[in-house]
Every structure is written in structure tokens, then in C-alpha cells.
Design brief:
With 328 residues, the chain is mainly alpha-helical. It has one domain. It has 14 helices and four strands. Helix 2 packs across helix 8 and helix 11 packs across helix 12.
């Protein structure tokens, strides 16, 4: 009986959350809706990092490289090639995934701090190359490249992403599909191999897994979802610039994932929510918001190493035990 109730709860919670995300924007102000849209996009970006770090054990500070590639890819396809929304979005995602493949072929051959340094190096080089002016036809130097998102053809209708509400639902669809896809991946045999590598890379090698190959798959998947988040943000903001490649974005993804709870997927969205809402509302009372977020990260690592998701999980299991039940 308790098992059936637990299964029902596990189904009801995500379904309730999805219904809430569908209905909630109808009652929000335009500004609040824009904040919620950005939370979903940044949560997707953090989830892409969590796929690498939380499930495969690869601490990458290069995710902004693929985030920016996805954003610039879709902008290039719209501005220079004149493609429609579906072709442009696919182009941006594929550019990010291909770039992740190129970087990953080199990066996955090393481990630990060498891997970390390599990802930082690639990210910094990308910014320097764009700032050099040699790619001015793509980035226009330091100047942002504004563009208007093409309409989304849907049968006889054409939906405009310039409409903030329509753009919200557009982002929601991709975030939900991406989350379900990642959830299926991490609970599949492939995901179990990722977690085996995270726990003990040498043992994984000894039992016959081609570790570098599986790490490369995880790296490309992380790059693909990072590129998708970058493309969605470019469509939301309707411009791209070099800041999309900044190393600080990769650092934020790390912070969001750690605060929310690494290796949970949903923790990435929870961490991004806490960060963005805190930054937005605390800035009216606190002068140094980044310092406050840094303190929150420090407290999380010290007292809740499994993040906010872990705290909620412990509280839930504790309440079940207090009622005399056995946590499942």
C-alpha cells in the first residue's frame, strides 16, 4: 500500500509542477514572467553541467563556450542565412554539439585539475578570438547583434516569439522535453555507466568500459543542451554578444548546481531559481549581492554538500520516520 502511495506521489508532484508552470504565467506580471522564463533557461544550462559533473564526475568550466556557440549559431542562421526558426535552432544546437565534440576529443583524455584547466583554456581562447576582430562578420566585435526571431510555423498558424507569453511557452516546451530526455538518459544503462565512471574511473576501465568514449558522449550531450539553452536565451533577449561566452557563466552553472544539488537534475533548476530570485530581489537591500551568493554557496558546501534537494529529501524522510513509516 505504502509503495503504491509513494508511486502516486512521485507521479503527482511533477505533473502538478508542470500544470503550475502552464497556468502560472497567466497570473504573473510581464516582468515576473520574463524572470520565470530566464530561470527555466538558466536551469537548463545548469542541468547540462549537472549531466557532466553530477553524473559523470567531470568538473567543466567550459560550458559557456557551448552556450555561446548555440546562441551565435542561431543568430548567424537567422541573420546571415535567412533560415526559419526550426532550421536555425537545429543549426545552433549542432554547432554547439560539434564544438563540444572537438573540445571533448582532447579534454576527456585527461582527468582532475588537468581537465578543469583545459576547459577553462578553451573558454578563454574563444572569448579572445571573438574580441580580436577577425570574426567581426559573426560577432561585430564588442557590439551586440540584435535580431528578430522568425515566426514558429504551426499548421496554418505562425506564432510570434516576440510575444513574451508565447516565448514563455516555447521555452517551457524545450525545457520539459530536455529534462525528460536527461532523466531518461541518467536512468538508462548509459547513465549507469556515467555514474560508474564518476564513482571509480579506473575500476570502470578494468571491467571493460571504454571510459574516454563514454566521457566524450557525456561531454557532447552537455554541450548540446548548453547550446540549446544559449539558443533559447538568444531568442528571448533577441540579441547575442561576447558575454554569452564569458567564463563567469560557467562558474554560475557550477554554483547553481552545487546549491541546488549535484546529480539530481532538478537541483539545477532549484539552484538557478534561488540565485536569480535572490539577485533580483536582494539587490534592493544588499549592495554586494555576489558576495551574498558566495556566502550561500560556502554554507551549502559546508553544511549541505548534497544541496537544497538533499535538505528537502532529509526533511521528508525524517517526517516519514517520525510517523512510524519506512522511507522507500
Amino acid at each position: 500500500m505504502r509503495g503504491r502511495v509513494g508511486s502516486a506521489v512521485r507521479i503527482a508532484i511533477p505533473m502538478g509542477g508542470l500544470i503550475g508552470l502552464i497556468v502560472l504565467p497567466l497570473f504573473l506580471t510581464p516582468y515576473q514572467r520574463s524572470v520565470l522564463t530566464e530561470i527555466m533557461i538558466w536551469g537548463l544550462f545548469a542541468m547540462a553541467f549537472d549531466l557532466l559533473y553530477g553524473y559523470t564526475g567531470m568538473l567543466s568550466f567550459g560550458q559557456a563556450l557551448f552556450f555561446g556557440a548555440g546562441a551565435y549559431g542561431i543568430a548567424f542562421a537567422v541573420l546571415r542565412l535567412g533560415w526559419g526558426i526550426w532550421e536555425a535552432l537545429a543549426f545552433g544546437i549542432l554547432v554547439a554539439a560539434f564544438l563540444a565534440l572537438l573540445v571533448g576529443v582532447v579534454a576527456v583524455r585527461v582527468t582532475g585539475h588537468y581537465f578543469l584547466i583545459l576547459t577553462i583554456t578553451f573558454s578563454v581562447i574563444s572569448v579572445l578570438v571573438l574580441q580580436s576582430g577577425h570574426w567581426r562578420w559573426l560577432s561585430r566585435g564588442y557590439v551586440a547583434s540584435p535580431f528578430t526571431p522568425p515566426p514558429v510555423p504551426l499548421g496554418p498558424w505562425k506564432l510570434s516569439l516576440v510575444d513574451p507569453l508565447m516565448n514563455y511557452y516555447w521555452v517551457l516546451v524545450f525545457v520539459v522535453v530536455s529534462f525528460v530526455t536527461c532523466w531518461r538518459i541518467v536512468h538508462s544503462p548509459l547513465g549507469k555507466v556515467f555514474q560508474c565512471i564518476r564513482e571509480n574511473e579506473e575500476r570502470s576501465r578494468l571491467i571493460g568500459y571504454h571510459v574516454e568514449r563514454f566521457k566524450l558522449i557525456a561531454f557532447v550531450l552537455g554541450g548540446l543542451f548548453s547550446g540549446l539553452s544559449g539558443a533559447l536565451l538568444a531568442l528571448t533577449l533577441r540579441y547575442v554578444d561576447i558575454s554569452f561566452f564569458e567564463l563567469a557563466l560557467s562558474g554560475k552553472a557550477v554554483a547553481w548546481t552545487v546549491i541546488g544539488g549535484a546529480g539530481t537534475l532538478v537541483g539545477a533548476f532549484l539552484g538557478a531559481s534561488v540565485f536569480i530570485i535572490s539577485t533580483d530581489y536582494l539587490s534592493a537591500w544588499i549592495v554586494n549581492v555576489p558576495l551574498s551568493i558566495g556566502l550561500l554557496l560556502l554554507l551549502t558546501v559546508t553544511f549541505a554538500p548534497d544541496g537544497l534537494v538533499g535538505v528537502v529529501r532529509r526533511l521528508t524522510l525524517g517526517s516519514v520516520s517520525a510517523d512510524g513509516g519506512k522511507p522507500s
